[in-house]
Write a structure and sequence with these properties.
Layout lengths: L2 H29 L5 E7 L8 E2 L4 H6 L3 E2 L5 E7 L5 H17 L11 E6 L6 E5 L23 E2 L14 H4 E4 L3 E2 L12
Parallel strand pairs: 4-5
Antiparallel strand pairs: 1-4, 1-8, 2-3, 5-6, 6-7, 8-9
Length: 194
């Protein structure tokens, strides 16, 4: 495999992580307007310095060529005092990303590429995920999962179990805390470029 092809793929994967980090800042700023939002952090691979691995892409996989890890979506952890306005939170996320795209800020992440994991303050107890649908229930197969929509727009994912390390990145990837404001930009998180 040609070095130019590997470099092109690596560049794409680094830009993809940067896009998700820019989106994290946009969504965090939008969520900070909600009194019930206690804190927001980036979790998952977007919060980490990328590592090299043999990817899922056939031509790289068959040649056993390692490239940077692929960030497939943006995972955010949000601590909430109340789940009463999850529908408004979802709508705000959608509008904020659309506005950033239309403003030409360079953010081109769709709302369905953002997974918002909901947590209870202090205990860090997992509460569910913010639903992507515009109404609850939406009469989709995903809505048939037991407990899904019991609290409107609190999505349950069939078979999903919270991993013990889901919040491992939080100490260095907390973006916002109520009473303290913005702590950092997601663009300041560790990167292979800095």
């Amino acid at each position: 495999m040609r070095r130019a092809k590997i470099d092109e793929q690596n560049g794409y994967l680094l830009r993809q992580q940067r896009q998700f980090r820019m989106a994290a800042d946009v969504v965090t700023d939008a969520f900070a307007a909600f009194a019930e939002v206690r804190a927001v952090a980036v979790i998952g691979s977007v919060a980490q310095k990328l590592w090299k691995e043999v990817p899922r892409f056939r031509e790289f996989r068959s040649a056993r060529v390692k490239v940077w890890h692929e960030c497939r979506d943006l995972d955010l952890a949000v601590w909430l005092d109340s789940q009463e306005r999850l529908g408004a939170l979802r709508s705000t996320l959608v509008r904020a990303l659309k506005k950033a795209l239309e403003a030409g800020t360079g953010v081109s992440v769709a709302d369905h590429q953002v997974d918002v994991f909901l947590f209870e303050p202090e205990s860090d107890r997992y509460l569910g995920r913010l639903c992507h649908y515009n109404r609850c229930p939406k009469d989709k197969p995903a809505c048939d999962v037991p407990g899904c929509g019991t609290i409107p727009f609190n999505k349950r994912v069939d078979g999903f179990e919270v991993q013990a390390d889901i919040l491992a990145s939080v100490p260095h990837a907390m973006l916002y805390v109520r009473g303290e404001g913005r702590l950092r930009s997601a663009l300041d998180l560790p990167s292979v470029e800095n």
